[in-house]
Amino acid sequence: MTMRRWPLAALLCCLVLPAWAGPPAGSPPPGLAPERMAAYARSHMVAAANPLAAAAGRTILQAGGSAVDAAIAVQMVLTLVEPQSSGIGGGAFLLHWSAAGRELRTYDGRETAPAAAGPNLFLGADGRPLRFMDAVVGGLSVGVPGAVRMLEAAHRAHGRLPWADLFQPAIALARDGFAISPRLAATLQDDAALRADPAAGPYFYQPDGSPKPAGTLLANPALAATLQAIATGGADALHTGPIAQDIVAAVAGAARPGSMTLADLVGYRPQVRDAVCVPYRLWRVCGMGPPSSGGVAIAQVLGMVERHDLTAAGPASPDAWHLLLEASRLAFADRDRYVADPDRVPLPPGLLDRRYLADRGGLIRTGESLGRATAGEPPGKRADFAPDRSLEIPATSHMVIVDRDGNAVSMTTTIEGPFGSKLMVRGFLLNNELTDFSFVPEADGRPVANRVEGGKRPRSSMSPTMVFDRDGRLVMALGSPGGARIIGYTLKALVAMLDWDLDPQRAVSLPNLLNRNGPTELEMTPGAGPLADGLRRLGHEVQPMTAPSGLQAIRLLPGGGLVGGADPRREGVAVGD
Ligand code: DON
């Protein structure tokens, strides 16, 4: 059966959906691309950031592959066609729902700092932090990649098709060529550091130095060979042997060399960690725990706003947004102080305590913004840390996949900034994930929890999320790229689906509005003026932003069937059968 795009209203006429009984309260501010309809499928679905990648995942699902099988195929194609965002040279967090076992697992494939890296990694000779882009470009920022090892572990546990088969769509595209997408072409503009890399320069740019334009057929035989090696040899082919040696050489040979060794690559281990889950109204919302701050921050916000009725106010209401934005402010204050690699800095156990969140939520004033929030004192706090000021900027990718048996993947994957460290090795780019650490190791005489340490994972904001109903059934999965704004983007889509009853497409298209414990950042769309005015009246400093979220979301309907949405701000699609 071919995929159909149906408006949600058409679906509602044919299915009995007690949880979706009526239209959203209040009319939402117009979303972006209002003509874009949610995608519908009966059996399986992939929502991913690029149509070629989504098609590869769909092919695997059609062949009887599991959600994890499809995720691997999608990731390998993304490495080729969305090289600015994610790839085998980076890291990822994957939430996996096993329908038969009714088990949620979270896989941590986050990069690690090389063993020899220390707290002063990003301090210059004068003891001051490097400028951000000086730290990004070159070997210093490159973390030990984790995505492939993590996917291998997930495949061992949940794979159905042979590992090697999952690489075939990407290998064929890398060998035969793919058309450069408009977004990739746009990201190639003005990237002098990428152009200067001896491998990436000739691959992405023309002899006169201009970027190859959208539509150009680009083949990547070096990546085809690398993927073939991993297809045959597993993640060992990346973490040991000649490819690993080339990674080490590229990091050591860069203008700003890093200290990564073969032992770092050999020693990398993905982790299976406990999900962070909170009850929220009729549901249970689960996300990725540390080293991501995403799951904890979203759980804190939901815990703080649960006592308020957001549905009655509706998505056009400054009062409803005020509650979410203020709760987000408070959550970011805690995030900046307490969240880091849990293997080095244990999370204070009381951070998600209901009483603690009720107290924090009690700080929110209904008629007036708090201004800058300070971190709380959660029960069980063991050490005192100074706030982190690390910076995060756009790239990254999110995918959601549901297979025919109802198993699901929600995975955010990244090489950090656009084209990572700008170092290309054997057809793929190396990440700059270490710039997610705090550049400053201490402040006010206290250590920063997210300071650099050898072998440690940098704090992330990636927020792959899943929501379950009272009977423990999966009802939706979502996530987004966007650096620290990921938390706000994901929260927006989550609340839009849970409290405002929007379908996944309308939820992701809704204007972005968030607060990271500073100004309130609002995506300026034609209908956003009244919301901005209302928030200003409540004391918010409203800052217009361009907000290239890349949300993907899939909702599982109670009677069977899937509804998907992909962010109109990027090139994603939701496809299924
Ligand atoms: O792990 C993180 O939170 C960041 N490295 C993600 C970077 C990102 O999302 C860039 N975004 N568009």
How many DSSP-defined strands? 24
| Relative strand content | 15-25%
Query: How many domains make up the 3D coordinates?
Result: 1
In CATH, what is the class?
Alpha Beta
Average pLDDT over all residues? 93
Question: Counting H and I runs of at least 4 residues, what is the number of helices?
Answer: 20
Computed over alpha carbons, the radius of gyration is 22 Å
Which range best describes the helical content: under 10%, 10-25%, 25-40%, 40-55%, 55-70% or over 70%?
A: 25-40%
CATH topology: Glutamine Phosphoribosylpyrophosphate, subunit 1, domain 1
Shape: globular
In the sheet with the most strands, the strands line up as 1-2-23-22-18-17-10-9
CATH architect. name: 4-Layer Sandwich
SS class: alpha+beta
Task: Give the N-to-C terminal Cα separation.
Answer: 6 Å
Ions, cofactors and other bound molecules:
6-diazenyl-5-OXO-L-norleucine
| Main sheet characteristics | 8 strands, antiparallel
Unreliable residue stretches: 1-25
Could you give me the name of the CATH homologous superfamily? Answer: Gamma-glutamyltranspeptidase, small (S) subunit
GO molecular function: glutathione hydrolase activity; leukotriene C4 gamma-glutamyl transferase activity
Family: Belongs to the gamma-glutamyltransferase family.
Subunit structure: This enzyme consists of two polypeptide chains, which are synthesized in precursor form from a single polypeptide.
EC number: 2.3.2.2, 3.4.19.13
